[in-house]
């Protein structure tokens, strides 16, 4: 290198060092602290006179050892403008900080300093130099973004700094600049540049030129005044550049030497204006155009985990949800959630979108509770834990791509329990020995920061014994102790941080695990139609153009034309669009006011971190509590508006409330064709495996042809033609659910019923007359639904297949079902004790009959054995041949109708759908379609011979769809009864094997019912069903009611009280933002409906049991009317016109009695009652009284329906017992019971 080059480099280096120093000063200035009584240094205050600007001086020795930064500033008192205070601050730099400065200088000078076009001159000590004309570059040249960085820093002290425009072009021949402009520096908070018009005020080659404001014509011929650069810049007339001689950072010889060693040498090309971006090629270092681009590899992020003792999650749900989203937390571990078992409201509110949770509530006592909120793409598997009495524990495994880590979340109550260390040691010894990597965290309530604490010392010795490391070294509680801990064995923890969230006495522990997990915003392509903005008048006009199907066309052609035409109309008015969306979305209730509060909280948090003053800490905590309350209020208002806007939409109302009260339902994450095929294969293999077990191993004659079954007196061979009026009535009563196979949404069909109903009626009549079901109406979509939210979504056995059928298919089935029901009811072909899917029959009527027989048997001195049989996939294993034979022989269908049912059952296809993915189509060879209209009716016909088999053995039974109940009276000789029962069960099993049905022994239960003495003296302990020994149990769940051995229904009442209080507690949270009418709807939907379900069974039970339910009703009335808990409840119930619980039971029983008297009740209930009759004609014969049988026991016989119903009916006024309409009877009955109650 020549001597001139070295001199030039020596002169250029200090300017670059000044830039680096300015950057360092900018960072250090932001770390300086000032007294709160004076104004701190900010951008607005820096445009003051020069005597008020800060004077900075930076010193660094040549060995880059210790250095110091001095700052002298003059401030103005906030209350006395003419009072000036001079302050002096000094920051010393240790060798580590100096080394950081060296690295910063090296990085900046070696890779971020580029050339910038400008006047053709060399630079000595300024960053404004330009490419020289002697083909020698200088290190002080900057590209525009580097200039902006420098000016953003220095505009604090020099706000009037002007930046040369980058459109300046020079020519090597003349070395003059044309069209030079100036830009005002960019403000740090305003990313806009204000260009100054071009002028002739640029530097010239004259050594005597003076800089002043001149006006010269620009490119458009307009003369503009341009302000020249001001103090402290001056013109270096020797080199034609602007210099900054007052910069104190340009005097470091060490920085100049460092720059000389690091700078690269290159030869720039000639500056021309042919390519406006040619100046980018002049930057020092490597020419990146000559390098091949490498694929960008993004480092896998760590697994971010946080631990927080929330101290009641219910009042911090929205804040926790927002905190998880803002900090992008992968796993949020919460202790002391204070949630109760089966209470999911607070957890659902705290769970952001695309997150789910694991939870464990404290079963006994108050407080406690653990929860883990994590991303759905993480594979977390809960592990069962042993029974622990001294602490709570939530144990699970987290599987990543390369490693599986076991996580233990622990909460120990503050009270010391001597057995804590033994239980903890047993747990940790087992887990740490079998797990390759373990993370233990939680609130241990041990002062591990206190060396004299005996419990803490013993705890740390236990960790040391197990080779575990405790990583938290800072206080985690407001009192200054370390209670929340993070413990690992080999799990790599990084970036641990302890900070205060401001809403609890405990701080948050944030850490990262260096695990290879892949997190990215899940994106998918969705397809949608904009149905909200559709023009209903235009689409109605297009639908009116449809013509009726021709009688000469087949039903298949009519259906295809119907589907294609409506699809084209929908496509023209609401075309199918696609969009790629991400699952990350903000809460729908988040308002602009909340955003303002959030920004204010971030400002207060930064101030607290900067100053760490007590007053700032308290202000931040108060603001966080205020923000938490604001989030809660905004969420309540949102759901209140949603409930008010869906007053008449019960489906949307239940969906809204269930989203709050129920845990999130996990879905299968892999929505691909292969996943759909796996579901399809699993469902089909399950049916195949069941049917493969049906081997002809029995010779018992149990076929339907050998049993006595009723035969139809007149065969039914032709359908009745349906009318447009009947079709319109069916369309209005159907739900507005839409299948993806429908050509037009159901809501639009209902809006145009008068236009579409003639077309639908014509298609239906074509199908009925031809005895053929179109192929387009025999395709079903199977969507797997998880049976319970807590089940593993990766296990295919936990899913239930749900069929979705086209809307037109359901309308056709409703027409056929109505005619089939008329035929069955007219000729009494229904099974008498089958209550499923029949008008006027319900689970309550079935249970009333069964409980009546059991109570009367116990009243007569004999216990009864009740067996609840369950079938495996009963609807899916129905044999089509057997069903068609039964429709012909038992029901009497023939001719065209039988052909229609044969076409309905054969050649049916289905496929599994997950999102937009579909499986291959599968042909259904057995079963009746679930979700269809005719499926339940066909199944009841299929199992109708089962009743005749049970009657042969003199055993009572009752069926509700595929749920069968057998009950037998245990006589004085239980051996004979047991043998008859065993023979009946064997014959039932053989009949089911012949008819492709199978027992589910895992769900079959048995219970012995009677008085306490009868149960105690009974020798029956178990029964044998399908080769499995079924032990007697109590209680059992029968059609949603918990039944105990003595029929006291204590378990059922306790369960009702628990569930009702749970819903009342959740409704009470929404009550302040609901009107009374809306709150009453929620209470009737979630509380009153449960109190009224099967309440006819509770007649005659002790008053102390009914008091529990009455407390629930009283609580509901207080929540609705917002009365205090000590206010008298009777006036409240009276003002609401609510009947008490005992009166509600009497109301239900009298209503069933009215239906029995007038012949609208099921036959098995009507036969239990009879009118009062005398041997001679008396006046009482015309009072419509019922005969009341005699009973022995008040706790048994008096509670039976055939004894309690006549007693209540006869006590009614004669005006109510007289024949009248149902509506009149209900109104008079409620008035009578209401007057008696109050």
TrEMBL record:
Transmembrane segments: 12-29
Keyword Thylakoid: no
GO MF annotation list: catalytic activity
Skewed-composition ranges (Polar residues): 197-217
UniProt domain Reverse transcriptase: residue ranges: 766-1043
Compositional bias segments (type: Low complexity): 119-133
Keywords linked to the UniProt accession: Membrane, Transmembrane, Transmembrane helix
Disordered: region residues: 119-141, 170-228
Protein name: Reverse transcriptase domain-containing protein
Origin species: Oryzias latipes
